Amino acid sequence: MRKLFPPIVYNPVTLVGAAIAAVSFGLIIFLFILEFFSGESNPYLGIITFIVLPSILISGLLLIAYGIFRERRRIKRGIERSGKFIVIDLNDIKQRRVVATFTIGTLLLLLFSAFGSYKAFEYSESDEFCGTICHEVMEPEYTAYLSSPHSRVGCVGCHIGSGADWFVKSKISGAYQVYSVLFNKYSRPIPTPVHELRPAEGTCEQCHSPGHFFSEIKYKSDYFLYDEANTKSSISMLLKIGGGNSELGRAEGIHWHMNVANRIQYIHTDEKRNEIPWVKQINDDGTETVYKSIEVEFDENNYPKENYRTMDCIDCHNRPSHIFNPADKSVNLSMSLDRIDKSLPYIKSIAVDVLETPYSTKEIALDSIRISMSAFYQFNYPDVFKSKMKEIEESIKEVQKIYDRNYFPRMNVGWRAFPNHISHLYDTGCFRCHDNKHVSDDGKVIRKDCNICHTIISQVTPDGKENVSLQGIEFIHPVQIEESFLEQDCVTCHAREKEQNYFKNYKKIVSSK
What we know:
The chain is of the alpha+beta class.
């Protein structure tokens, strides 16, 4: 019988390589088609499809080449094969038993392999797999995710989403992540995937409709000063979260930016999207208004195209599921909930101080927090230390919980590691555009006006005085500052990326005793 290929191809090594390559290629095509038409993209199936199986395919091709090379050398030495294949005689009872055993065993193996593969695929989609397989790398994000408002939304639901548009991009990103972990090439901390995230319309807006935000919600916050008495102040405000369909309510408020009747586009000049010199507003009638920063020299005709964006949810809610809370904010909350004893002298200062102190490992941090807080009261307030030992111990445990939830020394992760564009206290946030410095050609200004987004209805000042008005009151800063807060941004003092000296008061007490 005439052979299709040259004799050097017909050798065991080449045939085995061809079988491996053929099966791998078939599986790649099958899995690609399966995921492409399933409507959902899974990054871990992509790892198998685009990393594992191609590696096996390449191995098979190398075996083919090696077999041909080896067979050519054998022929040159005068060693030739008979070219006969194994003959199976089913009339032989022994051979029949072997064939039957092999066939049944193969079918059972395929059955259990299919079941095992399905369970493996199912596990690869789980949040546990995403958060715990690479434990040290993903521990900060996974810990924050478990405490987030989106803890019931699967990781792949936001990071991958559905549809085929981002299919290939997710595979390339996933392949690099595997490489980074295997060869210890990943950054510490893991950077926010600004460019790899899908648009909000493919993730957030699958549950949240941008045209259905209405009315206001009440927000209340307690603040404790860094003095010996931990003096309390509080503020209540109405957050204007509206901006939805005008037929069902007022189409104004924070979510006006996301109203389907408006489209906001902007250009940012930095990786974190903190610097925005150019903004365009497009109304539903097609009219456009362009605002340019008066402080930045910027040519809107010459910029990287990837820095041009249409505003969506992520431009403000850029940490919706991986939130690391600032130390003073966390301590304020715990004190207001009586998890940290407010009567302990300087507890606000000492708690924030031990949280903000850099440590090499989390284990050392937790031990140091206990030692530092205990020593502070033992040496500076011995009477308090004796009479309130239980309260001090409970407060220490609460501060340790705050640290455990928000700080990860091995990954260089803490609340300062990532910008959070919600609000304007610790990051520029709203004031990236609302700064009174973005002006249109006809003189319109993007206003820096607190009442655009919220109305303060009550405030308890540190002197105990309560101001109340449903029409809105003017904010009184709880601590006297040299320059009016109206003339500067909150981040001037509270900035995430600047070291703060919150602890002057209690450190003066320590040095004087």
